[in-house]
Every structure is written in structure tokens, then in C-alpha cells.
């Protein structure tokens, strides 16, 4: 028996696969490599190249590998780009999820851990987000993730599907030098690329009502995130009570300015970031409570900010060699 990890060749997905293997749980990866990388999949892990829009391929993989549950990470994840590509975003994230759930039903696979997002909240009117904070997504990406949660809930009513959705904010760091974050939109890769190219990193806004004037956000280590997926899967396997959604948050957050100072210290490259204008709609502070996940999924911040930066920098430099 094994767990299927969709998007398992991605930055987060490959860490999830490694976390499952560390717990002795077999996995099979399905990924179309549109953003994932084949080399991110650990040696010895079954890999199926294909899209989650192909129900036949999913059913075949589930049957062939004795799949008992699914961690669903595959999707189009760029919130800003989704505004320009709404139909593509809905096809990948909504149609893809529906296709996956249909394949699961056809093969009797009755448990799923869904990779949701803090984007479902939009710009909340509170600076500490809980699972009950009103959902007001502000991009097709955020909307598609919320619809994904609805699909799971409706399928649970119809078929008894056991499920949970993990909402998280900014995922950083690396659990191994073999995997780094290659995203062209995330803060850490943008800063590291600038430093490696001899440019000064740029941040958006330095006049927010925060201690250092920069935005405060939740940053969590990718290995901690991966462990939470395994804990959720184990809870589903054991038939234990589980919430429909969990926030994976730090409870306090760090500022972009703090990150810049940590990057300078870890890399040994002294710099003062260029400060551009605020981005429209960026709130001063968004931090999530992780209390429910701490109760049920042994969720906690196991890495300091310095460790997040150091692990991400080490993996990025290894990739550049």
C-alpha cells in the first residue's frame, strides 16, 4: 500500500515525499513537470509523468501501486499570474482536483490531504488569522483553492471521503541540498538570485505601521510543512478525528526587513535592500494561528529564521554549482 503524491516533483512535493519515506511509508509521484523537476524525486520512488487532468492515468497509477490515500499538491500556484490566466488556473486547480477525486472514487481511494493556501483569506480584517476567519480570495488562484476545499467537502458527503486541507502562507528553506525553491515569484529565490548576480535585492514598501516599516508575514520551513502532511495522512489512516482545515502558521511572523538582515548575516554579503513603493493591496501584517494543527498534527516551528535562510541558501548555491 502507498500514498500518491500529486506534484511530488515540485519544491514542496519532493519534501513531502522525503518525509513519507522517512516514516517508512511508500509513495508514488504523479507530476507533469510543468514546474516540478524530475531530479527532485528521490531515487527509488515510483514516478509517473502525466497530468492530473488525465483520469485514466491517475486510475492506472492508483491500481498499479496499491494507493490507499492521496496528498494533492499539483496545481498552478502563482496568485499574481492567475489574474492574467484565470482559465488556465481553474483548469489546473479545479478541473484537475475534480478529475483526481473522480479517479479516487473509481478506485476506492477514500482519503486525501489537500494542499490549500492562505490565499483563500484574501486581505483579512484581523492580524491573526484562524480557520474561521472569513474567506475572501482576491485572485483566481485563491478562489480555485477554496473551490478545491468545497469539492472535498461535497465528495465527503456523497461518498464518505476522509479529508483535510492544509492552508499555509510562505514556505521557505530546504531539508536537503538536492532540492531548492526555483520559483520566479517567491521572496527567497528573488533575493538569492539578486545576490548571486551581484544585484541589490529589492523589497516593496518600507513605511508600513510595523516595528521596522516592512510587511510582517508567516514564513514556515518546508520540512516542517512536509512533516505536517505525514501527520495528517497518519491520522486519516488511523481513522482518528480530523478537522476539515488547518492553518499552518507561526503565530507571530517575521518582517521582510528581518529576513533581509538574516540573509546578509547568513550569506556574509552586506547589503541594504532597495525599497520600492508598496504593492497595492499588501496588508501590513498577516500571521496565522497554528493552534489546531499543534493539537492534532504535532505542528510547531522547528526551525529558526536563521536556519530557514541558511538551508535555503545552501540548497540554492548547490544548484548553482
TrEMBL record:
<feature type="domain" description="NAD-dependent epimerase/dehydratase">
    <location>
        <begin position="3"/>
        <end position="249"/>
    </location>
</feature>
<comment type="pathway">
    <text>Carbohydrate metabolism; galactose metabolism.</text>
</comment>
<protein>
    <recommendedName>
        <fullName>UDP-glucose 4-epimerase</fullName>
        <ecNumber>5.1.3.2</ecNumber>
    </recommendedName>
</protein>
<keyword id="KW-0413">Isomerase</keyword>
<keyword id="KW-0119">Carbohydrate metabolism</keyword>
<comment type="similarity">
    <text>Belongs to the NAD(P)-dependent epimerase/dehydratase family.</text>
</comment>
<dbReference type="InterPro" id="IPR005886">
    <property type="entry name" value="UDP_G4E"/>
</dbReference>
<dbReference type="GO" id="GO:0033499">
    <property type="term" value="P:galactose catabolic process via UDP-galactose, Leloir pathway"/>
</dbReference>
<dbReference type="InterPro" id="IPR001509">
    <property type="entry name" value="Epimerase_deHydtase"/>
</dbReference>
<dbReference type="Pfam" id="PF01370">
    <property type="entry name" value="Epimerase"/>
</dbReference>
<dbReference type="InterPro" id="IPR036291">
    <property type="entry name" value="NAD(P)-bd_dom_sf"/>
</dbReference>
<keyword id="KW-0520">NAD</keyword>
<dbReference type="GO" id="GO:0003978">
    <property type="term" value="F:UDP-glucose 4-epimerase activity"/>
</dbReference>
